[in-house]
Specification:
The complex is a heterodimer of chains A (396) and B (267).
Chain A lengths: L1 H10 L2 H23 L1 H4 L10 H25 L9 H22 L8 H4 L6 H25 L8 H6 L1 H21 L17 H28 L1 E2 L2 H28 L5 H4 L2 H21 L2 H4 L2 H25 L13 H24 L7 E2 L21
Antiparallel strand pairs in A: 1-2
Chain B lengths: L9 E6 L8 H10 L9 E4 L13 E4 L8 H5 L5 E3 L5 E3 L9 H5 L6 E2 L8 E2 L5 H5 L5 H5 L5 E5 H14 L19 E4 L17 H9 L2 H47 L1
Parallel strand pairs in B: 1-9
Antiparallel strand pairs in B: 1-8, 2-3, 4-5, 6-7
Classes of the chains: A mainly alpha (396), B alpha+beta (267).
Chain lengths: 396, 267
C-alpha cells in the first residue's frame, strides 16, 4: 500500500509538485493572515475595505459561469452534442467556486464565525443571497461531478440514484446560478455614492448575468481548445462553433443594454471625459466585447480552434477587467486614498490559483473527466499527464 | 414587504461654526466606549485653511454616524448585525458580525470604521452612547463638548432649533440643514457657516441607496420561482417534443416495413 503510494508520487509529473509547492506557500501565508489579522497582511483601509480578493472572487465566479451555462444548454435545452464538455467544465466550476469560498474565508475579519451567515440571515442583503447561493451551488456542482468520482469505485451502486435526481438538481443549480451571478451585481446597487457612474447602474445584476454567460461559454471554448493541445482530447470543432455562435448575440445584447443605460441616465458625456475611468471603460468594452463580436460573427473564426481560443480569451479578459473595474478601479477614492494590494494578498491568491491547477490535474489524472470527449491522438492516453510537453497543434 | 420609517426619537445638532477642533469629543468617546484613538467612532472633518493672509479661515466639524432613517448599512449587512432601533439609533451587534465589511462600502457617509490592527477585528461605529441614554445622560461627545457645538436632544427639538438658528442668523449660516433631507433623513443634523462640500461632507441624494437595494433584492424570490417553473417547463416541453418526434419516426418506420412486407407478399 505504502509502496504503491510512493510509486504513484514518484510518477507524478513534475509540474504538479511545482504548483503544489506554490499552493503550500500561499496557504501558509493565508494561515499567517488568520493569525495576524488584516492590518499587517493587507493594504485594505477604511476607504478601500475590499481589495483584490473580492475582485478575484467576482471574476472567478463569472468565469465559472461556464458550468451553469453548459448545464442549461445540455440538460434543460437538450443540446446533447455538448454533453462531452460537461465533466471538464463542471470540475473547473467546482474548483473555481471552492477557491472563492477559501478566499472569502481569508477575507472575513471574523472568519471564526462565518457560520453566522446561515444563522443570522438578513434577507435584504445582496451579499447574503450571494453567499447562500454560492454555498448551495458548490454542493450542486459536487453532486453533478460525483458520478465521475464514483464511476470506478465500489460506491458505483449509488450511481442510479444520483442520476435519477440529476435533472431537478441541475434545474435548481441553474436557478441558483442565475440568482447569484446577478446578485453579485446587486451588491453594488447600494454603492451609488462610491462606484463611478460609468459602471454604476440599477441594472448591474443584468450586466453581470449576461457577461457571465458570455464568459462561461468562452471558458468552455478555451478549455476545450487547451485540452486539445495538452491531452489530444477535445470537442468536435463543429460543436465549439455552435457555442461560439451564441457569443456575438450575447455580447451585442450587453452592449445595447450598457449604452442604452448610459443614454437614459444622461451619462454619455462621461464616456470620454472621465480620464482613467474612460480608458478602463473602453478597454473593457473593446477587448471583451467589440472585437470578439467581430471575430465570432465570422464562420472562419468559429470553426478554427486557434482563432476561437483567441476570441474566447479576449472575452474572458474583458469580463475579468469589468469585475476589477466594478470592485476596485472604478471605486471613487475617499479622501484621496487609493489601494494597491499587499504582497501577501497577492501571494495568497497565487497560492489558491496554483491549488486549482494542482487539484484539477490530479482529478483529471485519476478520474474519467475527459472520457466522453473525442480522442484526437490515441497514442497519448488522457490519464497519463506525465509527459506534458506541449504537443504541436496539428489541426483537426 | 412594507417598510415604515419612523422619525428618530433622539437627534444631534452639530454647529460647525462653534467647533474649535479641540477633539475633546474624540477623547471622551474613546474613553466612554473603550475604543482606540486609531480607530475612532468620531472624527473631525475640516475645510483646510482657506482665504489669503491675513483673512484666513478654517472650519471644522465633528463627524460620526448620521443614524439614517433608512440606513444602507442595515440593508446591506449580511448577518443583520446592524439594526435600527425604535428610538432611531443604528446599533451594531459585535456578537454576530462576520467582518465582511459590506457596510463600509454601503454607507454613503463613509462612517463605519474597522479595527484593522486587531487579530479578530470588529466594526466601530457610534451608537449614540445608548447605555448613557438609558441612564438619562447625554452621549459622551455632546456632554463634553466645551463650546456646545454638539447638542443632543429630542429629534424634533433639534430640527426646530436648527431652523431657528439659521433664521435668526441668516448671515452666519448657509441655508441648509444637512441631514434633514440627505439620504432620506438622518438623526444627526448639521448647520454650518460654509457649504458642506467644503467641509468634506459627501453630497448625498434625498433617497437612501437602501431603497434601490430593496427594489432589487426583494424581487429575487419571485425571479427564482419564475426561473424554476420556466426551466422545468422548457425541459419538459423539449423532452416531450423529442419523444413525440421519436415516436413518429418509429411509427413511420414500422409502416414502411409493413408496406414493404405487403409488397413482397404481392409480388
Amino acid at each position: 500500500m505504502l509502496r504503491k503510494l510512493v510509486h504513484e508520487l514518484t510518477t507524478l509529473p513534475k509540474y504538479i509538485y511545482v504548483f503544489a509547492a506554490i499552493t503550500a506557500f500561499g496557504l501558509s501565508i493565508g494561515i499567517y493572515r488568520m493569525y495576524a489579522g488584516l492590518g499587517v497582511t493587507t493594504n485594505l483601509s477604511k476607504a478601500f475595505p475590499w481589495g483584490i480578493w473580492i475582485s478575484f472572487d467576482l471574476a472567478t465566479v463569472a468565469l465559472s459561469g461556464g458550468a451553469f451555462t453548459l448545464a442549461a444548454l445540455v440538460y434543460v435545452l437538450h443540446f446533447e452534442s455538448l454533453h462531452a464538455a460537461v465533466r471538464p467544465t463542471v470540475l473547473a466550476g467546482l474548483l473555481g467556486y471552492s477557491s472563492v469560498l477559501v478566499i472569502l474565508l481569508f477575507d472575513l475579519g471574523r472568519w471564526d464565525r462565518f457560520y453566522n451567515v446561515f444563522f443570522h440571515p438578513n434577507f435584504s442583503s445582496a451579499l447574503l443571497e450571494v453567499s447562500w447561493c454560492i454555498a448551495a451551488y458548490s454542493s450542486i456542482l459536487f453532486y453533478e461531478l460525483s458520478p465521475v468520482l464514483l464511476e470506478n469505485s465500489r460506491w458505483r451502486r449509488f450511481l442510479p440514484v444520483i442520476k435519477k435526481y440529476t435533472i431537478p438538481i441541475v434545474i435548481a443549480g441553474v436557478t441558483l446560478s442565475t440568482m447569484h451571478q446577478s446578485s453579485l451585481g446587486t451588491m453594488f446597487v447600494i454603492m451609488s455614492p462610491r462606484l463611478h457612474p460609468l459602471w454604476y447602474s440599477m441594472i448591474l445584476p443584468i450586466f453581470f448575468l449576461v457577461s457571465s454567460l458570455a464568459a462561461g461559454i468562452s471558458l468552455v471554448i478555451a478549455g476545450a481548445t487547451i485540452s486539445y493541445w495538452l491531452f489530444g482530447r477535445s470537442l468536435k470543432i463543429k460543436i465549439l462553433a455552435k457555442l461560439g455562435w451564441f457569443l456575438p448575440w450575447l455580447l451585442s445584447f450587453y452592449l445595447v443594454l450598457k449604452f442604452g443605460e448610459l443614454l437614459i441616465a444622461g451619462e454619455l458625456d462621461l464616456l470620454f471625459s472621465s480620464g482613467t475611468y474612460s480608458v478602463l471603460f473602453w478597454a473593457e468594452l473593446i477587448i471583451g466585447f467589440f472585437i470578439p463580436i467581430g471575430l465570432f460573427a465570422l464562420k472562419r473564426v468559429r470553426t478554427s480552434r486557434k482563432a476561437s481560443l483567441f476570441g474566447a480569451l479576449m472575452i474572458m479578459a474583458g469580463v475579468i477587467l469589468n469585475r476589477f473595474d466594478v470592485t476596485w478601479f472604478g471605486m471613487n477614492p475617499v479622501d484621496g486614498e487609493t489601494y494597491a494590494p499587499h504582497w501577501m494578498e497577492v501571494a495568497i491568491l497565487v497560492g489558491v490559483v496554483a491549488g486549482i491547477i494542482t487539484v484539477y490535474s490530479l482529478v483529471a489524472r485519476y478520474f474519467p473527466i475527459y472520457e466522453e470527449t473525442e480522442l484526437y491522438r490515441p497514442e497519448r492516453p488522457v490519464n497519463e499527464l506525465s509527459r506534458l510537453e506541449r504537443a504541436p497543434a496539428s489541426g483537426d | 414587504m412594507a417598510h415604515t420609517f419612523h422619525t428618530p426619537r433622539y437627534g444631534f445638532l452639530i454647529d460647525a461654526s462653534k467647533c474649535i477642533d479641540c477633539r475633546t469629543c474624540m477623547v471622551s468617546c474613546s474613553v466612554e466606549n473603550n475604543v482606540s484613538m486609531e480607530t475612532t467612532r468620531i472624527w473631525i472633518k475640516e475645510t483646510g485653511v482657506t482665504g489669503t493672509f491675513p483673512d484666513l479661515s478654517r472650519y471644522t466639524a465633528p463627524y460620526h454616524c448620521m443614524h439614517c432613517v433608512d440606513p444602507s448599512c442595515v440593508s446591506a449587512c449580511t448577518v443583520g448585525a446592524l439594526q435600527r432601533t425604535e428610538d432611531g439609533i443604528v446599533m451594531y451587534d459585535n456578537e454576530i458580525c462576520i467582518g465582511c465589511r459590506y457596510c463600509m462600502y454601503a454607507c454613503p457617509f463613509d462612517v463605519p470604521n474597522y479595527e484593522w490592527e486587531e487579530q479578530l477585528p470588529l466594526v466601530v461605529k457610534c451608537d449614540m452612547c445608548f447605555s448613557r441614554l438609558e441612564e438619562g445622560q447625554q452621549p459622551a461627545c455632546a456632554q463634553t463638548c466645551p463650546t456646545g457645538a454638539i447638542q443632543f436632544g429630542k429629534y424634533e427639538d433639534m430640527r426646530a432649533l436648527a431652523h431657528q438658528m439659521i433664521n435668526e442668523n441668516p448671515d452666519k449660516y448657509v441655508d441648509h440643514v444637512y441631514g434633514e433631507e440627505e439620504n432620506g433623513g438622518t438623526a444627526t443634523l448639521y448647520i454650518s457657516p460654509v457649504p458642506f462640500e467644503e467641509l468634506g461632507f459627501p453630497i448625498a441624494g434625498t433617497t437612501s441607496p437602501a431603497y434601490s437595494n430593496r427594489l432589487v433584492t426583494e424581487g429575487t424570490p419571485l425571479v427564482a420561482g419564475a426561473m424554476l417553473v420556466g426551466l422545468s417547463g422548457a425541459y419538459l416541453t423539449i423532452k416531450n417534443e423529442k419523444e413525440e418526434a421519436e415516436e413518429e419516426r418509429r411509427l413511420a418506420e414500422q409502416e414502411k416495413v409493413a408496406v414493404g412486407e405487403e409488397n413482397s407478399h404481392a409480388s
